[in-house]
Amino acid sequence: MTPAALSVRSARKRFGGLVAVNDVSFDLRPGELLGLIGPNGSGKTTMLNLISGALKPTAGEITLAGERISGLAPHRIAQRGVARTFQLVRVLPGLDALGNVMAGAVFGHSRAWGGEARDMAAALLSRVGLSGREHMPVTAMTYIDQKRVELARALASDPRLLLLDEWLAGLNPSELRIGISLIDELRREGRTIVMVEHVMDAIRSLCDRCVVMSSGRLIAEGGVDETLRDPEVIRAYLGDDDDA
Amino acid sequence: MTGFNLEETRNLALGTLAVGVAALLPVFDQGFYLAICVNIMLYAALCTAWSLFSGPTHLVSLATAAFYGLGTYSVGLGIDTLPYPVLVAIAAASGAVLAGLVGAMTLRISGVYFVIFTFGLAEFVRQVVTWLQTKFATAIGLYVFTDITESQIYWMLLALTAAVFLTGFLIARSTLGFALQIIGNDETVARHVGIDTARAKIVLFMISGAFIAIAGAIMAPRYSYIEPPSAFNPMISFLVVIMALLGGTRRLWGPLVGVIPFTIMMDFVSSRFPNHTMIVVGLAFLVIVYLIPNGVTGLIENARARMKGADTVAREKTA
Ligand SMILES: Nc1ncnc2c1ncn2[C@@H]1O[C@H](COP(=O)(O)OP(=O)(O)O)[C@@H](O)[C@H]1O
Ligand SMILES: [Mg+2]
After folding, report:
1. Which domain holds residue B107?
2. Which of A121, A164, B204, B238 shows the smallest number of beta carbons within 10 Å?
3. Quick one: which H or E segment has residue A83?
4. Is 60 exceeded by the pLDDT of residue B314?
5. Ligand 1 atom at minimal distance to the Cα of residue A40
6. What is the mean pLDDT of residues A205-217?
7. Residue B254 forms part of a structural domain
8. ipTM of this complex > 0.95?
9. Residues within 6 Å of ligand 1 by CB
10. H helices of A54-190, where?
11. Structural domains in chain B (count)
């Protein structure tokens, strides 16, 4: 049996008195698109931070294709092939769109340089719908276009695992359609993806499986429809609404 | 590695020309102008080397005096036993090693703590050298007698400055330069695209420290008598920061714009009002930090950008 593309074993993250991720375990098959959902503050971003190395787990183990990555520095994990986008989009303001995407191509998993990196970046920009805007300052771009740049940057490293943190949030309905079909294409080319998302339509149409977190715990896991019907999941979401 | 593009070729040609012209100076004057130009060239090398690190990382180092003094002492200690070029190489190596140690120790500290740490380090090194000398040597200082002339010192400093520029130019086109650009933009992104940010900064600090130590080694013959208060003079660290910030560190040649007028002014002040140099330095520091935080070259670039912006706005309005 081939090892799981990603395996999270009893991952835990404690911030002082708060346990933001509480003994969470799940696996990801190669080529699978997993939805990671849950109410606000349930620990989804923290979970992604543990995988990408932005935070070190307090306990537990995370392996990428059988190799342990938990505890490594984020640049090492990136070099092993994990790429991500950020919940609050993070572009490099001093670089143009091409430079932003090249940043992903040069140091990460793919390690291209010079003309090769430039060509890769240009191809990815056109893939996310930004051809002709290679030399536009990213600060002059709209929010969705900055998100596209960020996605292209993540893809430029040719990642073995892609982490998307609410990449579809903040898009208007027509942008959302474009965004969903873009992720669908990535899924079809066989990328392994963990996608944190609030947009239920996107989860339903894109994900093979989903994992639900609530207050740091994993409360449900499985096929999308059955999981969303789970009474505990419904309670978690409604409870969150009551609090709000 | 790709070949040089048009702009790079032009910059290389201009740089070579400037070095050629500057090299002619001692032919015309061996007195006052040469002396002041040695100072200008010294600070040109120091400030550019300092900016190699502090420009992209935005970390202000006050350790310049430590590297400089180390270079001076490498020559002072070895001049009777080893050939001068070997001593310069030793100076470069000790500068790089010290910078590597400091870099490794300061990995986790940032901003103002880095400033204080480097300042403390320079003072600490000075105290250690003083202590060693009173403990193991008969005098507090060292005599450096060589037949190296003022013109030769000038030429060596010019060569050093050219080497610093060339290094900066090559770094800018390398993956290290690209990594630093990304780190300067967003360090979190830098780490997540696979950049070992700590290593990049340490490598850069070592390069910078080695060059500063070489400057000290070149200047040693000019002092003839070396003692800790002059070799590790904290004033050197402050002057370097002030001149580099005055010129601006966004461009490789930015510090030069600060070095030339400021060295001339300091020369005037220290000959006319020798007791007031500290006041002038302090005032200059305040004025620069408050009024021109990005330096003169930053001002010029911003003005240019504004004009360009106004241009496009005007064009859009008419379109
Ligand atoms: N760096 C941090 N330090 C302290 N608390 C944090 C930190 N990051 C997240 N938290 C807390 O952990 C909990 C989970 O946050 P997060 O993972 O961002 O949730 P989600 O992404 O599911 O909305 C929240 O209560 C949040 O305040
Ligand atoms: Mg979140």
Report:
1. 6-234
2. B238
3. strand A82-84
4. no
5. 23
6. 92
7. no
8. no
9. A 15, 18, 20, 38, 40-46
10. 74-80, 97-107, 115-127, 143-155, 173-188
11. 1
